[in-house]
Amino acid sequence: MEHRRKLVHVTSIPIRWGDMDAYGHVNNTVYFRFMEQARVEWIEAMQVLVRPGGDGPVIINASCTFLKPMTYPGTVEVRTYVGHAGRSSVPTHVEMLIDGELYAEGAAKVVWMNTQSGKSVPIPEHVRASFEEDTAAPT
After folding, report:
1. Residue 51 has pLDDT above 90, yes or no
2. Which of 58, 90, 93, 118 has the fewest CB neighbours in a 10 Å radius?
3. Residue 96's closest CA among 24, 18, 14, 19?
4. pTM of structure
């Protein structure tokens, strides 16, 4: 099945010694932190404050497929892609690479909601415009 997605953000995050677990590799929860940091940087780059109050993005699900164990030292390149946006949500896909090699893939569905009411709201137009310009080729 083909999915259209667009690369929207790339960041590099150093692996810290404390990110490793008793097995000597990066703990699985840290991969979600890498995805979270990349997502917050991407959202803030669109001039959306990730703060309580008013309307803002939240995730309603998240997943990660661990392909190879990461270890210290190293730097993870996190690439964030978006898929087809709906009225209030957009699927995201993440690739985590070290030295150009894929170590993990993740996904999260980002929903815009009113933090006071807990109900979804339309994605802001300036945010939607950043998803939809130059739609990427199928991957």
Report:
1. no
2. 118
3. 14
4. 0.89
Strand pairing report for 89-98 and 101-114: antiparallel
Q: Which amino acid is at 57?
A: P
DSSP letter at 19 equals G
For 70-101, the pLDDT digits (tens) are 999 999 999 999 999 999 999 999 999 999 99
The answer for residues whose C-beta is within 8 angstroms of residue 96's C-beta and 6 or more apart is 31, 34, 35, 70, 76, 77, 78, 79, 102, 103, 104, 105, 106
Per DSSP, 46 falls in state T
Q: In the chain, where does DSSP find H-type helix?
A: 28-45, 125-132
Taking the alpha carbons at both ends of the chain, their separation in whole angstroms is 9
How far is it, in rounded angstroms, from Cα 101 to Cα 92?
20
Q: What is the mean pLDDT of the chain?
A: 91
